[in-house]
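Tutorial handout. Part one gives the primary structure; part two gives the three-dimensional structure as tokens.
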Amino acid sequence: MADFANDLDILNYALTLEHFESAMYKGIVASNKLTGDEQNYAMQFGGHEAAHVTALTDTITKANGTPVKAQASYNFPAFDTRDNIVKFLVTVEDLGASAYLGAAGE
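Part two.
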């Protein structure tokens, strides 16, 4: 379990992950390597991640905290093929879920 000093630390931890995932989906959608339903799902999921960023940022601000900023860039692999994108998505989504579960503890 991760150690956090307070609720704002937990919220900023979540916001860090949401910034990453939001940027990831933007990059995937922009690559135009997915088509049809897959591209639509990536656009929808990206919208959800962007909404999470907004909700967490607003919550942290209302609690008199300072929301973490997104990095200027992320070191994503090349979104050059559908298969590489799907493999990366599976890895990131699995790790993201594990990160939240690890932070939650028992």
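Part three, for discussion. The CA atoms of residues 1 and 101 lie 8 Å apart. The mean pLDDT is 93.
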